[in-house]
Amino acid sequence: MTSDTDSGTDRGALEYDVVVLGAGPVGENVADRARAAGLSVAIVESELIGGECSYWACMPSKALLRPVTARADARRVPGLQQSVQGPLDVPAVLAHRDYYTSNWQDDGQVDWLKSIDVTIHRGHGRLTGPRRVTVTAPDGARTTLTARHAVAVCTGSRAVVPDLPGIADAAPWTSREATSAKEAPGRLVVVGGGVVGVEMATAWQALGSRVTVLVRGEGLLPKMEPFVGEHVAAALTEAGATVRTGASVAAVDRDGTGLTVTLEGGEQLRADEILFAVGRAPRTDDIGLDTVGLKPGTWLSVDDSCRVTDVDGDWLYAVGDVNHRALLTHQGKYQARLAGDAIGARALGRPVDDTPWGAHAATADHAAVPQVVFADPEAGSVGLTLAEAERTGRRVRAVDYDMASVAGAGLYADGYRGRARMVVDLDTETLLGVTFVGPAVSELVHSATVAVVGEVPLSRLWHAVPSYPTVSEVWLRLLETYRG
């Protein structure tokens, strides 16, 4: 006789209106909006409820970085500088990080899902045909879930580790290890100059590591305006880190005293840990895509309501990182709200407005994706860079302003260094993109997002008066520069 907890036991079948694969912020928001429409929802998760953002990305990384940027800002304020010259209290910073990850316990997230009457299934979920998901629990028992209306794939992405000689035994860090480490390594090599590489280099350099950043290309943060990476690289160098461009890793070897990192060309570096921050891959390799005619391990193509376009029947959705539109938590949650509402509308036979800027269309994914890099200095942008705008064939103009000349910036930080750029569509006189780099610019990004999304004419934006003396006065200076 066997019990229902024996490995391989079939626990039967259950039916819901919607089944969500993945209980990170994206999956939670799909579930929330589908429940708001009155649909029954099951959510499947093999790890912690709350996902990457809550435990290994957004929350722990920003908890590590906030003391770093706060100290940097304080050191730029006369009368306060001498009070903050000592090192950071590393145990206190790490304890603060642990608090914001709930010590890697998901009880609060579980309680929230239960409070909105979403059923949680712990285990690995795989599609096993149209509208069907089989969940294998940690004890091996299986439950089959059938969705009356929709299955939403919200499984996110994972860090890519290149296949290099010695990599298997080197136990390299990815973003997960970098945000959850229990102590600062003496020597840290960071491979990659994107957001994760820059933020983790900033954090661990300030927490006591000797950091070397290796970038294959010409500079940091290559997806933003070129001046952003220049400002951030200069600040990292001043903080004591080494930033090397045109550098590629050929091999990694771990021995009893650390790591030997061999570069292409033969040069070797010694380190205690190495972080690879060189890209992301979709977590779709083992979720049963082949059972519905899709290729495992691929990004999923979707329409603006996040329906998968390569599957018939209008029942499969892919929301967040897995559709490769914008690998950002806030953008994934935006998609999730729209997709959850669209699922509800279709299930209830109501009209779906997936026209540009419609109630069920993730239009901002194309035109107005905001992003903040929490380095020192901060960087933030929304919409198109100048190069991207020029590639569209529009008549455009870039308007730049040195933020050190803004009165509020000078008051915010002695010796403030930063730059702002707005990219103007000359035919419509609206903004296609805005970029800032400098202390405290993260709080400027939403005003730029409103201007870009709202397609606010510059003639009207001229009447949006920034308070004086604040850093946001840069808006007035940009518009004055444009008007000449």
Number of domains: 3
**What number is the mean pLDDT?**
96
Task: Give the distance, in angstroms, between the N- and C-terminal Cα atoms.
Answer: 86 Å
Which parts are unreliable, with pLDDT below 50 for 5 consecutive residues or more?
1-6
The CATH homologous superfamily of the largest domain: FAD/NAD(P)-binding domain
Fraction of residues in helices?
25-40%
Profile the largest sheet: 7 strands, mixed
Account of the protein in words:
The N and C termini lie far apart (86 Å). Strands 1, 2, 3, 4, 5, 6 and 16 form a seven-stranded mixed beta sheet that branches. This protein has a five-stranded antiparallel beta sheet with strand order 17-18-21-20-19, sandwiched between helices. The chain is 31% helix and 24% strand. It is of the alpha/beta class and 484 residues long. The radius of gyration is 24 Å and the shape is globular. Helix 3 (58-74) packs antiparallel against helix 4 (90-100) and helix 3 packs across helix 8. Belongs to the class-I pyridine nucleotide-disulfide oxidoreductase family.
Keywords:
single chain; 484 residues; alpha/beta; FAD/NAD(P)-binding domain; Enolase-like, domain 1; 3 domains; seven-stranded mixed β-sheet; five-stranded antiparallel β-sheet; 16 helices; 21 strands; globular; FAD/NAD-binding_dom; Pyr_nuc-diS_OxRdtase; FAD
Compose a concise summary of this entry.
Residues 369-475 form the Pyridine nucleotide-disulphide oxidoreductase dimerisation domain. This protein folds into 3 domains: 10-50 and 106-158 and 282-364, FAD/NAD(P)-binding domain, CATH 3.50.50.60; 159-279, 3-Layer(bba) Sandwich (FAD/NAD(P)-binding domain); 377-483, FAD/NAD-linked reductase, C-terminal dimerisation domain (Enolase-like, domain 1, 2-Layer Sandwich), CATH 3.30.390.30.
